[in-house]
Amino acid sequence: MPSIYILFGTVEGQTARIADYIADVVREHGFQARTADLKSFGNALPDECDGVIVGASVHMGKHEGYVTDFVRANKAALERLPSALFSVSLAVHGDEANAEDYVEKFEQETGWRPAHVGLFGGALPYTQYGFFKRHMMKKIVSSKGSPDTDMSRDYVYTEWDGVRRFAEDFLAGRFAAPD
């Protein structure tokens, strides 16, 4: 049975939640799935890996540097194996062109051009932020015209049906369903 690795970088945890959801979808379809945070994963793909999905969140206009480093180090394997990228940002919620630009910049930095890319809205976890970041994020969100400025609650912009479609499309395009 094919084993799919879902490797990710996250800051506040939404990308990890999306990776876990993708793993659940992969398992529902009869495949093995493993998730790992690239902060502690290392830079080498395991030999038993049959497919890879890489996820990264965008902060201050860039994906995590350690995700970029991992992709650079494993570019040949990512091009040889069935692989995909998902990018998580607040830009998807209101400015999809910006979200696409982040992916284009990531592709230029790594040299990897995945055939399958998902753009997902992230989260605005005001309750997890410290005082300064909470107020800075409120100011940024307000300047973009968003009404989501109540700092006593969190906002999740991830469209879970879109995440499911991304995972199912990846599997359908690259693997035969297991018996």
Q: Overview of this structure, please?
A:
Helix 1 (14-28) crosses helix 8. The protein is 45% helix and 22% strand. It has 2 domains: 3-122 and 158-174, Rossmann fold, CATH 3.40.50.360; 124-156, no CATH class. It is globular, with a radius of gyration of 16 Å. Strands 1, 2, 3, 4, 5 and 6 form a 6-stranded mixed beta sheet that branches. The model has no long low-confidence stretch (mean pLDDT 90). It is of the alpha/beta class and 179 residues long. The protein starts with a strand and ends in a 5-residue tail after the last helix.
Present the secondary structure layout.
Elements: E1 3-9, H1 14-28, E2 32-37, H2 38-41, E3 51-59, E4 62-63, H3 65-73, H4 75-80, E5 83-89, H5 91-94, H6 96-110, E6 117-121, E7 123-124, H7 131-143, E8 155-156, H8 160-174
In short:
By secondary structure, the chain is α/β, with parallel strands linked by helices. It has helices at 14-28, 38-41, 65-73, 75-80, 91-94, 96-110, 131-143, 160-174, and strands at 3-9, 32-37, 51-59, 62-63, 83-89, 117-121, 123-124, 155-156.
Tags for this model:
single chain; 179 residues; alpha/beta; Rossmann fold; 2 domains; six-stranded mixed sheet; two-stranded antiparallel ribbon; 8 helices; globular
Shape from CA axes? Answer: globular
Number of DSSP-assigned strands: 8
What is the domain tally? 2
- The parts where pLDDT drops under 50 for at least 5 residues are none
Mean pLDDT: 90
* The named CATH superfamily of the largest domain: Flavodoxin domain
Instruction: Provide the CATH topology of the largest domain.
Output: Rossmann fold
Q: Roughly how many Å apart are the termini?
A: 9 Å
Biggest beta-sheet profile: 6 strands, mixed
Order of helices and strands: EHEHEEHHEHHEEHEH
* Helix fraction by DSSP (H/I, runs of at least 4): 40-55%
Radius of gyration: 16 Å
Work out the strand percent: 15-25%
CATH class of the largest domain: Alpha Beta
Q: Which structural class matches the secondary elements?
A: alpha/beta
Judging by the overall fold, what is the CATH architecture of the largest domain?
3-Layer(aba) Sandwich
Count of helices?
Answer: 8
